[in-house]
Specification:
Blueprint: E1 2-7, E2 12-21, E3 24-34, H1 41-59, E4 63-67, H2 75-94, E5 99-102, H3 104-112, H4 119-129, H5 139-154
Parallel strand pairs: 1-4, 4-5
Antiparallel strand pairs: 1-2, 2-3
Helix pairs in contact: 1-2, 3-4, 3-5
């Protein structure tokens, strides 16, 4: 089973492919797609959508796992990230992928057993679980890896 995990955003979209085969989890690839800082939201959304459609087409994941929106103090940021999540979900839906959404609390709890874990604790667990030499970079990619692992932990019977 190949899981595509996505950490949504408008400026940066973290993505990761994690494989779960015969009880072994392994990182296939991860990265971060960035849009231009001062570009308009519709342009950013289009670029994210096109990038994800191509990423899905080239890598053929079995499932899409996306981090759910959490409350942000900046309302504009929350709306923009919500719009980015929309195009991400659309790309997955059009590709016929089963789509699962996980809250930051679920991700933290799945990897550390503690829903208020700090980012460095999540990153530490990602490296331990996947037997990596170093934390995936940038942070958005590491977050996407954590989201992929969360899906695997929540659905081990389907793997």
């Amino acid at each position: 089973m190949k899981v595509l995990g996505i950490d949504p955003g408008t400026g940066r979209v973290g993505w990761a492919f994690v494989s779960h085969e015969k009880g072994i989890d392994s990182l296939i690839e991860c990265g971060c797609f960035e849009t231009k800082v001062n570009s308009e939201l519709p342009d950013r959304l289009q670029k994210i959508y096109i990038f994800l459609k191509e990423l899905i087409k080239e890598n053929k994941p079995d499932v899409l796992a996306v981090e759910s929106l959490f409350f942000a103090t900046n309302v504009k940021t929350a709306f923009d990230v919500g719009a980015a999540r929309g195009v991400i979900l659309l790309a997955g839906q059009e590709a016929g992928l089963p789509i699962f959404q996980y809250t930051p609390l679920q991700v933290k709890s799945s990897l550390t057993g503690y829903g208020k874990a700090e980012k460095n604790q999540i990153q530490f667990m990602v490296t331990k679980i996947l037997h990596l030499q170093e934390i995936p970079k940038p942070d958005d990619a590491a977050d996407a890896v954590a989201i992929s692992l969360t899906h695997i932990f929540h659905h081990p019977h389907k793997m």
